[in-house]
């Protein structure tokens, strides 16, 4: 009887202690520090971090690739635009549409012969300069282009593209000064031949212009450069 009462008393005490301890356990904060977690929880936590880092790294690589493509397209587009602008400028210079400046030679000509002879001499000198690599030429400040015409009128006056020019004549050519000069003054060259001709009373002096601070300056042509008859062939 006493044994039964003792067991009942012990059970009652344990029940009361259990009721008192449960709230205490519930009030304790949960430790979320990975170092204090179980090995299984730590593995899961590290796996999540790894996957998250991989996702972020993939996104960063994609952004870098997009940026590289953008830079390549921008640089390529800028390069193409610069090339087109340069080609356009080259064509304008070739056609005499813009003022230009550069090194070269000046050929000063004094002649007492008739206009027809002077016309021939100017044409010969111009052709010699072109054959020697002159990039641009002018006569008495009148720009010569592929469509230019040098003629003499009935009164013996020289005309360049219908603009009158008078002595002394000045041929100016932009190009390599040394090459142009050597082509003109070489032994047996055009100037020597012209000056040795007893019927051709002409004086020719060549001046090199290779100082960057004092270049030859040629004005653009006064010709109307519109093409009225020639048309580009389709497919070119």
Features:
single chain; 236 residues; alpha+beta; Alpha-Beta Plaits; 2 domains; five-stranded antiparallel beta sheet; three-stranded antiparallel beta sheet; 5 helices; 10 strands; elongated
SSE topology:
Layout: H1 2-26, H2 39-94, E1 100-102, E2 104-111, H3 115-131, E3 136-139, E4 142-144, E5 150-152, E6 158-160, E7 163-165, E8 169-174, H4 177-185, H5 190-196, E9 202-209, E10 216-218
Antiparallel strand pairs: 1-10, 2-8, 2-9, 3-4, 3-8, 5-6, 6-7
CATH classification, class level of the largest domain: Alpha Beta
**Fold-level CATH name of the largest domain:** Alpha-Beta Plaits
The helix tally amounts to: 5
* Major sheet size, sense and barrel closure: 5 strands, antiparallel
Helix coverage percent: 40-55%
Q: Describe it for me?
A:
The protein folds into 2 domains: 32-94; 100-218, Protein of unknown function DUF881 (Alpha-Beta Plaits, 2-Layer Sandwich). With 236 residues, the chain is α+β, with helices and mostly antiparallel strands. Strand 5 and strand 6 (158-160) form a beta hairpin. The chain has 5 helices and 10 strands, in the order H-H-E-E-H-E-E-E-E-E-E-H-H-E-E.
């Amino acid at each position: 009887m006493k044994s039964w009462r003792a067991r009942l008393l012990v059970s009652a005490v344990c029940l009361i202690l259990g009721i008192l301890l449960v709230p205490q356990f519930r009030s304790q904060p949960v430790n979320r520090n990975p170092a204090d977690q179980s090995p299984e929880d730590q593995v899961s936590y590290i796996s999540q971090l790894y996957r998250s880092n991989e996702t972020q790294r993939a996104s960063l690589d994609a952004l870098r690739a997009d940026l590289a493509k953008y830079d390549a397209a921008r640089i390529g587009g800028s390069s193409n635009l610069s090339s087109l602008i340069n080609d356009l400028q080259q064509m304008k210079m070739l056609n005499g549409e813009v003022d230009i400046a550069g090194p070269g030679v000046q050929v000063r000509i004094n002649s007492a012969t008739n206009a027809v002879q002077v016309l021939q001499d100017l044409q010969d000198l111009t052709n010699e300069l072109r054959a020697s690599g002159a990039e641009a030429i002018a006569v008495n400040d009148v720009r010569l282009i592929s469509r230019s015409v040098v003629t003499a009128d009935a009164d013996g006056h020289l005309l360049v593209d219908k603009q009158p020019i008078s002595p002394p004549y000045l041929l100016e050519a932009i190009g390599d000064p040394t090459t142009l000069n050597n082509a003109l003054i070489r032994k047996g060259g055009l100037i020597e031949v012209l000056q040795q001709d007893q019927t051709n009373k002409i004086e020719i002096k060549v001046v090199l212009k290779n100082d960057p601070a004092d270049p030859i300056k040629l004005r653009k042509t006064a010709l109307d450069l519109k093409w009225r008859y020639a048309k580009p062939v389709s497919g070119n």
